[in-house]
Amino acid sequence: MSKYYLNYLDELESEAIYILREVWAQFQNPVILFSGGKDSILVTHLAKKAFYPSKIPFPLLHIDTGHNFPETIQFRDALIKELDLRLIVGSVQKSIDTGRVSEEKGKNATRNALQITTLLDAIESNKIDCAIGGGRRDEEKARAKERFFSHRDDFGQWDPKNQRPELWNLLNGNHFDGEHFRAFPISNWTEMDVWNYIKREDIKIPSLYLAHQREVVWRSNSWIPVSEHLKLEENEKIQTKKIRFRTLGDITITGGIESEADTLEKIVAEVAAMKQTERGNRSDDKRSETAMEDRKRLGYF
Amino acid sequence: MEIDKNQLLRFTTAGSVDDGKSTLIGRLLYDSKAIFEDQLEAVENTSRKKGHQGVDLALFTDGLRDEREQGITIDVAYRYFTTPKRKFIIADTPGHIQYTRNMVTGASTANAALILIDARHGVIEQTKRHAFIASLLQIPHIIVCINKMDLVDYSEEIYENIIHQFEGFSSKLYVKDIQFLPISALDGDNVVNRSKNMDWYQGAPLLHTLETMHISSDLNKIDARFPVQTVLRPQSEGFIDYRGYAGRVASGIFRPGDAVVILPSGFTSKIKSIDTMDGPLEEVFAPMSVAITLEDDIDISRGDMIVKENNQPKALQEFDAMLCWFNNAPARPRAKYTIVHTSNQQKAMITDVVYKIDINTYSREEEDKELNMNDIARISIRTTRPLMVDEYRDNRITGSFVLIDDATHETVAAGMIV
What we know:
The structure holds 2 protein chains of 2 kinds.
Chain A: H1 8-26, E1 30-33, H2 38-51, E2 60-64, H3 70-83, E3 87-91, H4 92-97, H5 114-125, E4 130-132, E5 149-152, E6 180-183, H6 191-201, E7 212-219, E8 222-225, E9 239-245, E10 256-258, H7 264-272, H8 291-298
Parallel strand pairs in A: 1-2, 1-4, 2-3, 4-6
Antiparallel strand pairs in A: 5-6, 7-8, 7-9, 9-10
Helix pairs in contact in A: 1-2, 6-7
Chain B: E1 7-15, H1 21-31, H2 37-49, H3 65-70, E2 77-82, E3 86-94, H4 100-107, E4 112-118, H5 125-136, E5 141-147, H6 156-170, E6 177-182, H7 206-212, E7 225-232, E8 244-248, E9 253-254, E10 259-263, E11 268-275, E12 284-285, E13 289-294, E14 305-308, E15 314-325, E16 336-341, E17 344-357, E18 364-365, E19 376-389, E20 400-404, E21 411-417
Parallel strand pairs in B: 1-3, 1-4, 4-5, 5-6
Antiparallel strand pairs in B: 2-3, 7-8, 7-14, 8-13, 9-12, 10-11, 10-14, 11-13, 15-19, 15-21, 16-17, 16-20, 17-18, 17-19, 20-21
């Protein structure tokens, strides 16, 4: 075989670097949307590569639901310090306190949908014209049609039927004042690709992804971590299990799986044998068949 | 799995509601175990609700709300699956003529195209359309899947007749590599596993064909082109005078020491180093993203192109291109558009519509000059400043462009330079 070809991880990396550099070249005030999850950590790592030996030219924007894993916040702060980046925090609690949104009520209440308002407010008040996200097309069917450069109107809304065509490697980020873009450099990566790459590059990730002992309760088919925000239902009981998380989000709705995978090697092996999608443990996606699309239209990540 | 060597293969499919395209993709995903239990469960539920027997494989590829309601695919959807040999990206596009622009989009980055033919109907208008688009976008490999063989008693004669029909018109097209396969997506014959019903077919099943197709020779390794995306100037300790030209190699091979020319200025220099965060490289080729430093201090910015002295693109301000119009609003004669070509943006004007092509019959129409959505035409274009171009046939990156309407900022057309 010819030596002039890239393996698929190198090709995905090269594509992501290309997109990150296009964001920098085409926008005035881009940010990386940082959740503390592996996908946004990966995007940050790729940004480091894209601009080396310069430092990453974007601040990180964290939309803080107030329902965090403490590990996530520690990880975020250490990363900011290491990379010498600016952090912008959009606080959902503040949006609630100032009456921009009101807390959902009922048993399955979450702050998931409330983030949309906080995010759009942060984008507007910081005059952000491009928010770089770790969204991947394999995650969810509404995301399968997402562009690398995804246009948002001046209400922050996504119109899936009127997206700009993207051909070859030509990205059109032209826009009017008040509109913004979402950019998705790892669109073409799958969960497996992300893990293989994290392992290959030995990227630091929060310990939550590795199997550990934790107090949890069994709810909606997954292990929900015990935290100050968790309200116990009748006949739910706290147990200690060895679990790990496949995705990290709001602590009240992010379920873990029982696992022995406490190294990157073991995670890769476990993910390869996995029978459920990673969002299968996210109750926010189970509300309806089009839950993700409906949130995305309104301006969700 | 030996991930170090596995390549990525991008292929496109086009098809309408009835020719079994969604079923074929569902079958590939299902048989290669790219479908998860919760996805399967969701599809089983929907299949039951709709009163289908068994699992309707086509449902795996349904995307947006409107599509599910109407039962069609209206946009390009990307799907992923991996086998021990390759990672695959499918650009799944609708096949109807009103979605020509989606097919063109999906085809633009593909290494291979799957064209589906219903064995009961043989070559139809849509087959010709899909073959034309694959040829227009210069997809190097075409695989023609003659589907629903189960409905024609797995007849070799019917299969051979369809190949004959296809070759009858495809001789007019420029295609490097065509292969034919008799399949039944519904039952899985010759998709992942060899068919037990068609002993007369000696070739490999579809997945094996995709896994072993030789794609590294499709890259242009001759014409070295490096469009500059941005300039890296860290001005930090250890890098006070560092100036790296960041970009992705479009084609050809670059090495430190190469004599290069910067276009459009024409300044010459030598490559000092080719840098990445993981260390300098001795050799780079498409599609690698790197930063190039030069021996001399030259003013270079985004939109410039680094090429080799002995092999340069043409600097053209007027050229012809095959154009596909994407927008609801027709092209305005002599109106100005923004042209995006590599990392360069200029203003451009369509000065002539030479002819339009009927992509069902391949006939040319020279009288009708209006470009409407989904039209494909040969046009003449003029730009405010020269662009450094190659013919699309030689170079899919430096030979392609899009047009943006400044009034809406929408991408209104895609062009291939001839």
